[in-house]
Amino acid sequence: MNPPARFTVRVRFSKTGKIRFISHRDMARIVERSIRKLRLPVSYSEGFSPRPRISFGLALTVAYESEAEYLDIDFVTPVDLEELPTRLTEALPDGLSVEAAAHLEPGTASLQESISCCRWIIEVLGDSADVTAAVSDTLNAPELPLERERKGKTTTVDVRPAILEIEIAGPTDNGVQLVALLSTDALTIRPSEFIRVLSPEFGEGRIRRTHQFIQQDNGNRSEPIEAPDSPAAPHTLLTRSIAPSEASAMSDERCAS
After folding, report:
1. Tens digit of each residue's pLDDT (9 = 90 or more) over 192-247
2. Alpha carbon of 200 to those of 127, 131, 167, 195, 197: distances in Å?
3. Is residue 168 included in any domain, yes or no?
């Protein structure tokens, strides 16, 4: 017997406000419950305890907000991609908003495999002059050793190659807002570690993920689904198919290597 057909859809959504305090696991439960509520034709796994075939992208740390979260959903029959964002948003709690959906062609790489870096807005709590100096020192540093503890063992890793960009966006009431492009590839660095590398004296304020990028063969990077309000992303992009060769590319936006 042939396996049932699957129609995979990639969804882009935002997570802001109080809902940022729920965990990644709770987020998965909320999405599953919303899909059941809408009675969408989702595909289920086989076995003793079937589960809906939903694949999330990179986990978001509790208390962090995001303008660019993604998940892939397998359906047994095609769904209306123009209506899906509105229907899902209405079924989700306040603070979760589905912005776009696109069909994935078979063979498209998973989100976990394809995301190479993320752009963050990071509030660093500390004196403005000290933060500015720390940014300059970090960009000019040939290496940045960071101690990490895993399974009871401490290792030191040079995370300088994982910091791709830093830009000072301006002051906040309690510190400085930075825009940072951080790698999620073979070498990764989390925003909390990034702040610790700047200086152990700095604190962590409000943090928001604004972009997730896929590395293209031509050296550029693009988002899995471009934001629907972007000038480069007309409404028709919400319903087009994504071929594996594009690696889900829908953006011409570039970020520095």
Report:
1. 999 999 999 999 999 999 999 998 888 788 999 987 765 433 322 232 333 333 33
2. 13, 11, 20, 7, 7
3. yes
